[in-house]
Amino acid sequence: MTERRTLQTEQISGHPGPVPGMGMQRNLEVCKLIDATTCIGCKACEVACVEWNDLPFQPTTFDNTYQTMPETNWNYWNLIKFREHQREDGTLMWLMRKDQCMHCADPGCLAACPADGAIVKYANGIVDFHQENCIGCEFCVSGCPFNIPKFNPATKKVYKCTLCSDRVGQGLEPACIKACPTGCLHFGTKEDMKMLAETRAKQLRDVSGFKDAGVYDPESIGGTHVIYVLHDAKNPELYSGLPKDPSIPFAYKAWKSIFKPLGLIGATLGFVGVVFHYVFEGPKREQPEVPPPKPEPPAGRKEL
Amino acid sequence: MATSVGRMQEKEPQFFAKLGHTTVHEGELARHSVYTRFLHWAYGIFFFLALFTGFATYMPFLFRWFAPAFGGPATTRMLHPWFGLGFVFFFGLQAINWWGPMKWTDTDSRWIKHLPEFLRSTQALEPEDVGMYNGGQKLQFWEIVVGSIVYLITGIVMWAGARTFGATSVAISYILHDISALIMLFGIFFHLYQATFGQPGTIQAMTRGTVSEAWAWTHAPAWFRQMTGRDPRQALEQERQRRIARERAIEQLARGGPAGPPGGGRA
Question: Is the ipTM of this complex over 0.85?
């Protein structure tokens, strides 16, 4: 894959007019598959992410679990979330979930962003932040259903996982994929990864006794370009709060695209109103007016 | 005639009384103190700064060209909350200043009911019971009071962001902040129009601080009565008679009356 083929732009935040060069070439959608059932929580992916993206050191927080810190950070884009789960039969399960940007097909961050070109969605499905265009308003933070974009107070910009768009553009897999020792991380086209995930889920259901095993690829946001295989796909919340039906707030969808422009037209009617009041009615002058205003000319006769 | 500085309804801090003064010329009434005028233009400036920086972020699709004037989109975003605070601060002082004269009364409810009639220019005079401010002015004042509170709360929520107040409260604030801005923008057109083209002679109340007596008995009759002790309708009628008499005298002079040669005479 060449750079041109993988990094064609599909959507741009706050951008007037069509996206340049869209649809010129056929594009394959990429996808990261995370098999949560084979993750051992080794955190090699966390280290690989910090190293490849050259992120400054972030102190870790020990909270008596195998989790590095409470949540992802502006300089820590990839975090294994750890949860101890007690099953109905009393046995315990360690649920490890690699938390990072999900690269939604319908990105809430992009919908919320008012800055031209600060958030870009490539035709291959990667959602990328361009910090040079970011205005630091943090609306993307409230638009994201996965709590992923993180604000850096020093630079006043927002950062998140890029799905290693720089590596993918050169035909390489993301750094986390390369580092994974158990093979629980896979990277390829969305179609291939979806098929691989379904095969693994079927195996879990048929062979391993996880009757609710399934694939997490939420339809409510048009699918994601990071998908999970879960032991219990009916309760994704178990995996440190993975939302079952993620959604984008009303404010950044219907309000922003329909009601907001209509509201502006409504407010502009105030201007139209006063202009035509002057045209139709004229000013209210101080009284008395002596001599009084001329009476209106009789109908049918024009007066210059 | 009636020089009414001492009877001005608005209180004025010592500092502003020394900083500037209000000269009431012949045939005028003092309407706004230096302090009131200062506050008005202070929050007026902040209003437009906040408006332009806000709209550059509100809908960059149409208003991105406002941003370069404030140093680019990021700086515009950074300045907007401070302009907003400036507006709320000075308007808050004005709200305290005007709390009394802006109290809602039955007169104002009646005024609002008859609003469509007042929009017609055939209705030359305000009803006799309209005081310093009419129902429309009070409505706009209280809209801005409520709007400013909405601005302040939702603005702080968005400023501190989702990392402080959570995603949902930011998304709700986003909508409420917009609605407040749209209502205020709608209102400001009427405010600017009424102060200038719509009712000539009004804007000087906020610049020099005075209005003509004719303005007062036309647009605020009860306030005129309060300021001068005269009946507004009678005063209007007297002025009408005086002007008619003056017109006649001029006409007579122009016809070559006893006062001088035709065309050369002055009343």
Answer: yes
